[in-house]
Amino acid sequence: MTLHPSRRSFLGAAAGTALALQVPGAKAAAPRFAVGDKDFLLDGKPLQIRCGEMHFARVPREYWTHRLRAIKAMGLNTVCAYLFWNYHEWREGRYRWDGQRDAAEFCRMAQAEGLWVILRPGPYACAEWEMGGLPWWLLKHPGDNFLRSRAPAFVQPARRWLQEVGRVLAPMQVTQGGPILMVQVENEYGFFGEDRDYMRTMRQALLDARFDVPLFQCNPTNAVAKTHIPELLSVANFGSDPERGFKALAAVQQGPLMCGEYYSGWFDTWGTPHKRGDNARAIRDIDVMLKANGSFSLYMAHGGTTFGLWGGCDRPFRPDTTSYDYDAPISEAGWLGEKFRTYRECLGRHLQAGETLPDAPAHLPVMAIPAFALSETAPVFANLPRAVIKDASPRNIEQYDISRGLVAYSIVLPPGPAGRLEAANARDLAWVFAGGRLLGTMDTRHRRFGVDLPARTRPTRVEILLYTIARVNFGVEVHDRKGLQGPAMFRTRDGAARELTGWEIRAIDFGDDGDLPPLRWHAKRAAGPAFWRGSFEANERADTFLDMSSWGQGIVWINGRCLGRYWSIGPTQTMYLPGPWMKAGRNDVVVLDLTGPRASRIEGRTTPILDELHPERDLARPASNARPRLAGVTPVHTGQFASGPATQEARFEQPARGRQLCLEVVDSFDGKPHAAVGELALLGLEGKPMNQSAWTIAYASSEEAHKEDGGALNAINGQASDYWHTAYSKGVAPGPARLIIDLGAPVDIAGLRYTPRQGPDSVTGRIRRYRVYVGDQLVQQM
Question: How far is residue 33's CA from residue 213's CA, in Å, rounded to a whole number?
Fold first, then answer.
């Protein structure tokens, strides 16, 4: 095969950056790691990387060694570790590497267990983490197109961050006797943009930070070529079809084949079924990769728990659960079950000469905690800080230097007729009170930003309590500014409208670690949003799972440490409480509940509840009897997709303008009455994907909700590994299959980008012929 010039230059660049340095005072040369034509090379000998992802921020520091030993015992020789920029620089210029954030100590522990390290420092990570790891204070800068770009407002702080990473972790590279073999530049940038010079800028920032090991980038199979540059090794991310992934790599470079993220399972979002990975398929794919002399990293080997308030959010807006179990071979609490055993057996067949598998670490003890009551309360409104921000019209909270938490907005309305209070935006959830009485809620999941207010015979104070759940961690929607955002209007039933001005704003900012504010406790039950306090006695310190199923929605603290968020809609009903975070004797528990518990009691279980949905416990939502309204509407485009899993673009004959778009499926390649969409993006006039933050599903002809999560939102969440699938387990809806998206406002649409359901050719629902409609109202209420 003739070597493409870009491939030749890559090999030279990789070899140049992989040269080892002598460690001053060392007795022997440090191990050398390099990228060869077909292999990774350690001291000149081929090294097949068998890696597993573990996020030290999601695992109690006291358990790092236990989890690393489990990774080693599974048959892996490397651990992959993200750094989350916002975890270490929550306030601009204040870096933290202490305690749970001690990344250098994590690397030392990995090395002590005989594991190499692949470092992924960002600046962007994704990983279902708050804002994808980007710090919230970047959003003080105006605009929606500067993050992950060459704009100085992003590049300058990103360079400072990577310089700090180099100060702390450059000494941990293999060139200096440490365990770090490779460092990733950015993360899946091809899913976001295509500016290759941006990737060069981030690469140079790492070189300037004194990283001299090989640098690489990762992208999903469909985007490998999109941002490939010869200066960086490319690796492919996928959860199936390794042959196609490796073929995409071979098309852009000559070098080792590697899967940067092989998905052992998937993450959960509130209100959807618990995800599980296909274990048999995973074992087959790992066999295929290793037999092809490929390397890989399991995402995740051990998922852990997104403690604190660090959970991210799928787009358009579907927050991730606190549990990050991921159905990984090492469970949330470090348990090693059947999935671990099968992975260990598979990897054991591929050990290099002289390698042996160590014994797996012992199962950590668990304990039950008898039910205990939380009888003291502190109402939220009575415990807001005295400091008041005054503003004519409410703006996003970042402009007030508020990072996240509870934000109360109040205004006094004069006597007058009934009407409707409407905000331009409310992220994320808000409860609206008038005269102390709850009147309704605002909910960004459904773009519901209005509440009806009754007539008033005297001046009445309206109070809006807003709760920030998480910033979107994926796509252009990472520009996710929080809070009630104006203009706020009051519309009377006769159509008259006026802007409401003169707001007072008070906030409980929970900060980086979910810090509890000073609270005034009362020994009586509170009505409405409140903090609750109780305690339990412990004679031992063992893991347990706090059962929160009788509560509503909020946050839990144990001995002042924030465990994370809970929401009784599920699928997670328990919260993992690590034994080391308990005390011998009395343990204090505080719960913030925004909707009120059904019973103010908690017990500790010995097993978690990860898959129990209760949609009836969600915020009240107006009933919808939506039906398509397509009679007499002419399609703006008709077409036929190619078979297979590749992403495809279709340009319309003429751009179309409208608020809603309908994808109508004529038939599928398998001939069955099913339709599926891995991802659907719309293209603007410039040919680039549109921002999806304002999108909602206006109508889906059906969706599978029993055998699997085939919800329609999966088609617009930016994740091609899940998908919308029409119903099949409890009957098949009559055709044609239709998906109607509400874009939030009329826009110009020039085409669409369709990602089929991923997997082998045998999967159902891949669309063949289709029609597209665009209009301002393609749905009507019956």
Answer: 7
